Request: fold
Amino acid sequence: MSYDQENIFAKILRGEIPCDKVYEDEHALAFHDITPQAPVHILVIPKGDYVSMADFTASAPAELIAGFFRAVGEVARAQGLEQPGYRLLANAGADAHQEVPHLHIHIFGGKKLGPMLTR
Ligand code: 5GP
Reply:
């Protein structure tokens, strides 16, 4: 799947659409989800044109891959989620109901999250 430069997260990265930012470095941007599904619901996205985890891990430079995952861990730590715990989720493709075609990891926390999947 080719990268759509007009997807909503590309626009957020370019600063064309605002976001409620919680973290940014050279590799990643993290911001609150516009429709939170938990008391803490943050999205972390890599800086680069990557649709999915498969795309990212196959084509991104190693430094960006490392920096992106460090950012995910750092955001969870900074949000105070290490001890109560949290959940990471990355949807990819139609079966997973990926809505935005730019790789993103959801961070959920702030309550007991229950079983992993709802049926
Ligand atoms: P997906 O289903 O692709 O894994 O998740 C996309 C997420 O992006 C959804 O949770 C949705 O609420 C969020 N989202 C969609 N548009 C925007 C937006 O313009 N700003 C922010 N902050 N989140 C968005």
Q: What stands out?
A: Residues 8, 17, 19, 31, 33-35, 43, 91, 97-100 surround guanosine-5'-monophosphate (CB under 6 Å).
